[in-house]
Amino acid sequence: IKDKTTATTATTTTIIIDDEEEEDSKEAGTEEEEKIGNEGDDRGRRTTTTTKTATREEDVGEDQDEEVLLCTQRGKKKPNNLECPLPAWLYEEAWRRWRRWRRSVYRRSGSRASSPTDGPAGLCLDLDTSPLVCVAASVRLGLQHPFLAGDRVTIARAGGRLLDQPEEAVVLGAYRGALWYRVHIGEAGSLEGAARPWCWLPSDVEGLSLTARNRETPKSVVAALEKVPLGRLPSYRGGRLRIIFEGGAVIRDGLEIDCSFRVGEVAAGVEVVATERRINSCNIARFHIKHEGVTGWVSERIRGGDEALIMEAVPGAELTAEDNYGFAEAEQGSTVPRLVQGWSSRMRKHISESSSSPSLSSSSSSSNSVGSSTEDALQELTSWLDPRASAEFQWEEEHIGSLEAFTQLASTRSCGGRREPALWSLGADMELAQALHEWADIFGADLVMNLPFRPLHKILFRALDSPNEGGVGGRGDIDQTLSSTVETDPVALSVIATLETKKHIWGSANEIMARAALLITLNGRAGRALPLLCFALPEEQWGRDHASASVTCPVTLRGLPGFEGLPALGIGSGMMWPAPCTARRLRRYRSLLFTETKRAFWDAVLTATTTPTALHHDEYEDPREVRTIKINRVRATPQRLASKDRSCAERLRCSVFGQLHREMRSWPSTVFRRAYLGKGHGGQRRAFKVKFLGEGVNDYGGPYRAVFEQVTDELQSDTLFLRAQGIGPDDWDRENRCLLPLLVPAPNRAANLGQNQEKFLLAPGASSYQTQELAQFLGKLMGMSVRHGLQMGLDLPELMWHPLVGQSLSIRHLHAVDTMAAKTILQTARGFERKDRLDGEDEASMQDLTFTTYLGDGSLVNLVPDGASRAVDQSEWRQYVEAVVACRLRESAPLVRAVRNGLAAVLPVELLPMFTANELERLVCGVREVDVELLKQCTEYEDVDPNAPQIQFLWEVLHEMRPSERTQFLRFVWARSRMPSSAKDFPMNFKLQGPQSGARESELSDLWLPHAQTCFFSLSLPEYSSKEVLREKLLFAIKNSPNMDADVRLHSAEGWSDA
To answer: What is the pTM of this model?
Structure first.
């Protein structure tokens, strides 16, 4: 519940009810709207009740969606003061986070560790990516050269066992002295939980090798890192040893005894040099030695029994520089801080010597140049080692580093210095929250709090604070910045393009970043509070308990002439105004919560409600609970379903959707909530397995995804069917609009008019029991796709998603799918409202209006009983317009309710109101456009060079493809048409491989086609000679591969006999 400031006054007060939806209030916070909101009832709002006490809400914007405000009727306008409307503890916590964020060294990440309160991402850690902290962690591991954040490391052994295929890991940072990593490439990357971050132990160091340094590390530093070794702690140092055990010592090739092989032995009494001492996972001390040409590990004691000593140190013996095995020379009293300090000094010395080595010239100018380069290199090293040493950070600490300065920055916006500072409004905060989410996608950050501070601040400063350098000074024209600010940086251009559409957040860069830190802190608190909050409104609970399964979606008449200020229709049965409650406030402020905050809580609830699956004793066998469904796709091709001799019932029976419905209609809801992940299934969760009749394919994930894709195609197939049937627009009916009777093309699509011509509607009007059952089954499939990380490419409009999240509908939502009907309603309302009777035909058409309307499928319905014979006159026009709008916006309500009931069997639908309609659509349907850069970011390479010509040809061709062709490509390689919205949602990486055996051995690579494995999201490319050849072969493959038949060879005609 938000804090309120109460003041006693003698003036009369009014209760103002405003039913405007939050997304329609983006103009909140301006002076004009403050005047409208506080000085009068200019929009026709209902007023009632009086009191002696006035409660002033803090300035949170003009959108008061279903909110009760108490304000003075004759009170003064709210002063534009600079008082802090938020509690002091929030500013203090945000200030501490802002200070850490400005250092740009901390990264929030999940882990494999978990607790009862953690979500599926595991225990969250704030990893320190600063070089000195990573160097300290490397010293604790006993590494010879440090592993730093962003470095790529090859893992050849795991638990002492030599891996069949080495894995590649990315170093994330350090936490509590340990070095943390994430497996990026390998079998573990596709197993549940194995791809989450974990830390290395000293016993894990064997088998680790550096693959590549972080690209952001300065080149001079990279060269020095390979030359300057780390020092070693005393616990890792070896020495001269004498074998004292009478049976001698056994040399093994690995640190772990049980996973290594015997490669030699050392007789008793022999002295050896141990270059390293290390404790293995069984807590046994082992020494690394080299004896008679054999290198390996020997134990300090006998394992078992009385654990007798095998060796002893030779008194007075010291290691030579050659015996130190490449580490820095040992220092007396070595500790981690001293070793890190010594390494830093050696780095400075090495860089100084490397920079001054060409200075042997006698020229003074050359000497000055070399001295300058040395100073620059040392300054670059200092800034890299400690970001706080930079001049920019020091200036910020001096001028805006205090809590008071941060509070001022986070509370106001200077608006470019062209007017008095203004408080942040609710609408501006919502825009900033959305902008932060978009910027995180642009920078490739998995979380908003992991946004890089310095690069983003630099772009915002150039765009908003420096008009002389091409910026806009806070209120200028951003188009100037698009052409003059870092034109070659696509990231900067994308950030600035985002600013162009969100002008309410314009201010200085420091103000935006400070307010962002405040929102990040707020989301951190809200994420912990979400499990304790309820999103259900009282009227919805009352409707479920007494009336029906759900309450009719509210409809607002805002935007229609003569209806400004009227409340929403269908808010609740018998309610004159919505009762204030926490759930209503949460829904109003839902846009302040980042999508990642909601998704974290959502995923935790999904994990807690997943049906457990008992594993088979053989890890490669499927559990008994995971059933196999036989699907005949041969007879379910769109061409066969669209043949003239097929009725609607027969099309449904032969379709993949109908086959699934027959098999699964009797399954309990617990089966739909199953999310089994098998070994070797590429990270694909599932509730059942698929067997395609007549296709030689094994279901390791690809066929399972293909089923959902074909269901989507069947539901939204209209053009092929109408062309095959020869049906014209005059003969359209509900059964003849699409192959299946659930969806119909939106009027804009049918008329090829207006926007959103790709959208479909749930069948409007009254529906049969069978249709509602099919819609409920569709809801279950949608719920399963969400649980299993799939995206069903359903092109459904906001008329579908708004009722599911509890957001009201308006005339603009009808305009998005039926432009002609919306314009007609607006013209009718405008004509009646102005009382301007049109003459001629228009006047006749106005007089011929009756209480009827056409639905989205073209059917005519009565708005009132016997509406066809009841004409609309001047006294009833408001009732008519209200009835038409409500009917059109709710025309699919029966099937929307059925879909929601299906979702409720699989998903926690009570939590859907915390999402916006757009967020829910992205959660269920993913992103329509295939983002090539995002796909490239999530790509790994196997047996092929990333810079090989055919790889570069592929990316160029994908960029040049049409959107529909890119979608076909994604289906060809992954059996899905929609990509996840961000890199963190990818269950597995896209794998580009070298040519297969036949293409590899052939000298004519241009004759071979690319080969895809949808189960493993991989593509094998022959070494094509040119980009044109690759384009030709790739387009031919993606357009002529409808079946999956490369796994096994069939010896029967199963599935083809029915075709």
So the answer is: 0.81
